[in-house]
Amino acid sequence: MNLRKGISPILATVIIIAVTLVIAIGVIGWIMGIWGTFGSTESLQIMPDSTLSADGTLSLHVKNTGTASAVINKVEIVGTGLSTSTTATVGPGTDTIITISFNAASGQIVAGASYQVKVYTAAGNVYSTVITASSSS
Q1: Fewer CB within 10 Å, N or C, the chain?
Q2: What's the predicted TM-score (pTM) here?
Q3: Band (3; pLDDT cuts 50, 70, 90)
Q4: C-alpha span between 125 and 137 (Å, rounded)
Q5: How many CB atoms lie under 10 A from the CB of residue 20?
Q6: Per the structure, how many domains does the chain have?
Q7: 100-109 pLDDT, tens digit each
Q8: Regarding beta strands 57-64 and 126-134, do their DSSP bridges make them parallel or antiparallel, or are they unpaired?
Q9: How far is CA 129 from the centre of its chain?
Q10: Is residue 11 a part of any domain in this protein?
Q11: Is residue 74 one of the residues assigned to a domain?
């Protein structure tokens, strides 16, 4: 008499297929972002209506499309030696205009010239854009 008992091969196959499907759905969901991201992030956009005048006044229109607040701690105009520390916070899903006055010497910013502006955040991200300077008003 045979006393060995176990599950039938058909039932074992069904269980293996079911487990495989559950794992595949989990992996696809994770890859496609169905369950969201792990943690929150900032994502700044510098809007095209930002301006820079020859007298050193920078008006930055920034929008945070991320899920965490962005704390701007430094703004730099590349190639001019002009930079400043600031503490401007842009909440998630909001936009704001930040006005910064640099102590620009005469001729340091030339109207009609294009300048790269870099925005540094407390999270360690750097966002940049190119702005054409206008004459002082």
Answers
A1: N
A2: 0.69
A3: low
A4: 32
A5: 10
A6: 1
A7: 998 877 778 8
A8: unpaired
A9: 14
A10: no
A11: yes
d(CA 97, CA 69): 15
List, for residues 36-95, the tens digit of each pLDDT value.
Answer: 555 678 899 999 999 999 888 999 999 999 888 999 999 999 988 888 998 899 999 999
What is the Cα–Cα distance from 66 to 40, expressed in whole angstroms? 8
Q: Which domain holds residue 59?
A: 44-134
In this structure, the strands spanning 51-53 and 126-134 are parallel
CATH number of the domain enclosing 71: 2.60.40.2950
Report the C-alpha gap between 122 and 116 in whole angstroms: 20
Copy the structure tokens of residue 29.
């969901």
On whether residue 72 sits in a domain, the answer given is: yes
CA distance 94 to 76: 22
